[in-house]
Structure formats: structure tokens, C-alpha cells
């Protein structure tokens, strides 16, 4: 994981250029085999909407 400290100095960069100077963190995923597809994630969110854990 990599954390960008620049937005702490210029918070507006997060909205102005989130894919350039305004990124917050980068995460490298090593094993994605168990991850949900976009459709499965949407279904999960719809099913659990409003459920507090």
C-alpha cells in the first residue's frame, strides 16, 4: 500500500484531479480469485442496504 501525503497540503486536489495529483492511496491486490464481480457486488449491496453490522 502506498499513501499520498500531498492532499494534506492541497485538499482541493482530491476533487480537481483524483487520478493525478489528488489520489489518496494505492493498493495492490495479490489474490483476486475470491472477489465479487461488479454484478455480484451490486446484488450484495442491494440485499444488505440498510442493514447495520
UniProtKB/TrEMBL annotation:
Organism from which the protein derives: Streptomyces actuosus
InterPro entries (alphabetical): GCV_H/Fam206, Single_hybrid_motif
Name of the featured protein: Glycine cleavage system protein H
Protein origin, superkingdom: Bacteria
Lineage: Bacteria, Bacillati, Actinomycetota, Actinomycetes, Kitasatosporales
